[in-house]
C-alpha cells in the first residue's frame, strides 16, 4: 500500500512539532489515513525527538489507535450483556457473514471495518451499532444491513 507521507508533514506542522503533542499527532495521522502506518513512526520520532519504541508504546496502549489498515467506515456492534440479550451477537454474525470478515478485520475493498465492544454505556436503547462515530439504537440485523447499503450508496 502506497502511503502519501506529505500528510504526516502537514500534521506535524499543525501540531508545531511539539513532543508534548504526541497523542494529538497520532490522532491526526489516524484521521488522515484511518490507521497508523508503520512508516510514520520513524518520521515522527525524527521530527519531535521521541524514540520510535516510545511512540509505538503509546500507539499500542490506546485501543483507539490501529496499526492495521482500516476501512473507510468503522462499524462497531455492542455485545455487552444488555445488547447481547436483545440480539447484539446476531447483528455481529450477520455483519460478519455479509461483509465476509470477522470482528477486528477490514473488507478487501477497504470499505468497512468491523469491531465489537462490551457496553457503550447506553444499554437502555440497545442493541447499539456505532457507524463512523454515530450511535444507532434499537438495531436489528436487517436495519444494520440497510444502513450499510445506504452508506455504500452515499445516501446516509
Ligand atoms: S451493553 Fe450495549 S450499551 Fe451497554
Describe the overall structure.
With 156 residues, the chain is of the alpha+beta class. The protein has 7 helices and 4 strands. The protein has helices at 6-14, 22-33, 39-48, 52-61, 81-85, 88-99, 141-152; strands at 73-78, 112-117, 129-131, 134-136. The chain has a 4-stranded mixed sheet with strand order 2-1-3-4, with helices on one face. Helix 1 packs antiparallel against helix 2 and helix 6 crosses helix 7. It starts with 5 loop residues before the first helix and ends with a helix. 24% of the residues are buried. The mean pLDDT is 94. The structure holds FE2/S2 (inorganic) cluster (FES). Residues 78, 80-83, 119-120, 122-123, 126, 128 line the site of FE2/S2 (inorganic) cluster.
Give the helix/strand layout.
Blueprint: H1 6-14, H2 22-33, H3 39-48, H4 52-61, E1 73-78, H5 81-85, H6 88-99, E2 112-117, E3 129-131, E4 134-136, H7 141-152
Parallel strand pairs: 1-2
Antiparallel strand pairs: 1-3, 3-4
The structure holds FE2/S2 (inorganic) cluster.
The site of FE2/S2 (inorganic) cluster has 11 residues, from helix 5.
Keyphrases for this structure?
156 residues, alpha+beta, 7 helices, 4 strands, 45% helix, binds FE2/S2 (inorganic) cluster
Brief rundown of the structure:
With 156 residues, this protein is an alpha+beta fold. The protein is 45% helix and 12% strand.
Output the helix-strand order: HHHHEHHEEEH
- Widest sheet, order of strands: 2-1-3-4
- For this structure, the quaternary state is single chain
Helical content (DSSP H or I, runs of 4+): 40-55%
Total number of strands: 4
The hetero molecules present are: FE2/S2 (inorganic) cluster
Average pLDDT level: 94
Write down the Rg.
Answer: 18 Å
Q: Uncertain regions: pLDDT < 50 for 5+ in a row?
A: none
Shape: elongated
Question: How many individual helices?
Answer: 7
Structural class of the helices, strands and pairings?
alpha+beta
Main β sheet profile: 4 strands, mixed
Amino acid at each position: 500500500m502506497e502511503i502519501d507521507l506529505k500528510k504526516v508533514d502537514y500534521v506535524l506542522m499543525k501540531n508545531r512539532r511539539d513532543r508534548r503533542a504526541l497523542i494529538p499527532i497520532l490522532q491526526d495521522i489516524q484521521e488522515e489515513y484511518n490507521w497508523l502506518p508503520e512508516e510514520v513512526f520513524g518520521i515522527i520520532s525524527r521530527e519531535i525527538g521521541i524514540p520510535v519504541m516510545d511512540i509505538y508504546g503509546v500507539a499500542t496502549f490506546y485501543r483507539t489507535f490501529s496499526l492495521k489498515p482500516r476501512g473507510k467506515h468503522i462499524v462497531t456492534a455492542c455485545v455487552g450483556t444488555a445488547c447481547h440479550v436483545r440480539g447484539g451477537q446476531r447483528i455481529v454474525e450477520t455483519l460478519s457473514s455479509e461483509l465476509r470478515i470477522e470482528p477486528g478485520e477490514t473488507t478487501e475493498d477497504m470499505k468497512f471495518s468491523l469491531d465489537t465492544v462490551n457496553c457503550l454505556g447506553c444499554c437502555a436503547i440497545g442493541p447499539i451499532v456505532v457507524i463512523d462515530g454515530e450511535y444507532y439504537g434499537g438495531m436489528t440485523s436487517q436495519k444494520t444491513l440497510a444502513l450499510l447499503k445506504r452508506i455504500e450508496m452515499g445516501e446516509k
